[in-house]
Amino acid sequence: MTEQGSSETEDRKDDHIRIVQERDVETTGTGFEDVHLVHDALPELDYDAIDPAIEFLGHELSAPIFIESMTGGHRNTTAINRALARAASETGIAMGLGSQRAGLELDDDGVLESYTVVRDVAPDAFIYGNLGAAQLREYDIETVERAVAMIEADALAVHLNFLQEAVQPEGDVDGRDCLAAIERVAADLSVPIIVKETGNGISGETARKLSAAGVHAIDVAGKGGTTWSGIEAYRAATANEPRQQRIGTLFRDWGIPTAASTLECVAEHDCVIASGGVRTGLDVAKAIAVGARAGGLAKPFLKPATNGPDAVIERIEDLIAELRTAMFVTGSGSIDALQRTEYVLQGETREYVEQRTSSEKQLDS
Fold first, then answer.
1. Class of 12-361 in CATH
2. Per DSSP, what are the bridge partners of residue 297?
């Protein structure tokens, strides 16, 4: 990679964090507002005995809460990743890293440290790495294993971000042969593969293909949270790229609502993470009730991370308390029990799910 390319890669990472912190990059409509858990007025549970722990890809986690992949690849992100990793370690939850492409391709110790710091401060935490699906086509398995070794990863996320790439002035818009690359890596890599979207959701049809390709978990990252199309629209405006700015703004609300995406994916795969606009422990509880194994959050942890690990830990403890309360008032003493709790689906999400189901039946007939 050229020195100019290196600078662009690092600057893009820095731009993303700055824009997320300073601009309006949130959308609404996760669908969780249409998921209503049925109240149990007689739960017959001791609140203090409720156990939110889960097993995930062979690892025990204290709660079904993920610090979603956010950053890395710029010196300015090292402190953020250090705080997030320490908090994940102390609370026993999982943490993902932002794309490791810069760590593989840039010869820069400062860039590398923005990734390696997570394992330095969290030697026992469940940490998963991250590469783009488009990069998998370019990398042999030895290169992908370097990303795993870089952070001693327990798993590797492969992110799908083609809408973001289409809006980026410098985006990679060749989406061919990515499924074959995912299947190859899933078969040969030393750790499990998690395939994740980046804010636009995963349909049942895509989940079916990913399941057949052998991926070990699917992270839906649906519509309703941070909009990467919107983020890239801000970047395009700064770069004086009016067409890309218009496209990014037009597609700001594009995607499958997170609740609907979760429902579609759990019908095709038995290990699904619900993320995209998840903001509370109640959202996590709703995600689990509709079939997810865990819920993930990104942006809500970013501001606390700039204040250090204690602020992140406090946010995680708030989420766990909210989740445990939802478990208590649904009579769910464990996450397995919460997955079996009753819920009512209403409103636009119900309409969306019913129409999608009807469309699939018509196609199959």
1. alpha beta
2. 67
Asked if 286 and 33 count as a contact pair (C-beta separation under 8 A), the reply is no
Q: Please report, in range form, the residues annotated as the binding site.
A: 12-13, 69-71, 99-101, 130, 164-165, 196, 226, 277-279, 298-299
* Cα gap 97→13, rounded to integer Å: 12
Q: Are 117 and 82 in contact (CB under 8 A)?
A: yes
Would you call 295 helix, strand, or coil by DSSP?
strand
**C-alpha to C-alpha distance for 71 and 99, rounded to whole angstroms:** 7
Average pLDDT, the chain: 94
Contact yes or no for 35/286 (Cβ under 8 A): yes
pLDDT for 25 equals: 86
Angle between helix 258-266 and 281-289 (nearest 10): 30
Strands 343-345 and 35-37: antiparallel
DSSP run (H or E) holding 112: helix 109-121
- Residue ranges per structural domain of the chain: 12-361
**Per-residue pLDDT tens digits for 226-274:** 999 999 999 999 999 999 999 999 999 999 999 999 999 999 999 999 9
pTM as predicted: 0.94
What is the tens place of the pLDDT at every residue in 159-185? 999 999 999 988 899 999 999 999 999
Residues annotated within a binding site for Mg(2+): 165
Give the whole-number percent of the chain exceeding pLDDT 70: 96
Question: Token digits for 159?
Answer: 């992110």
Residues annotated in the binding site for FMN, as ranges? 69-71, 99, 130, 196, 226, 277-279, 298-299
Cα–Cα distance measured from residue 69 to residue 56, given in angstroms and rounded to the nearest whole number: 17
Alpha-carbon distance 39 to 61, whole Å? Answer: 26
Binding residues for substrate: 12-13, 99-101, 164
Residue-wise pLDDT tens digits, 345-365: 999 999 999 999 887 766 665
What mean pLDDT comes out for the span 34-60?
A: 98
Where do the DSSP E strands lie in 38-107? 54-56, 59-61, 65-67, 94-96
What is the β-pairing status of strands 272-275 and 294-297? parallel
Q: Measured between alpha carbons, how far is 254 from 227 in angstroms, rounded to an integer?
A: 9
283 and 297 Cβ atoms separated by less than 8 Å: no
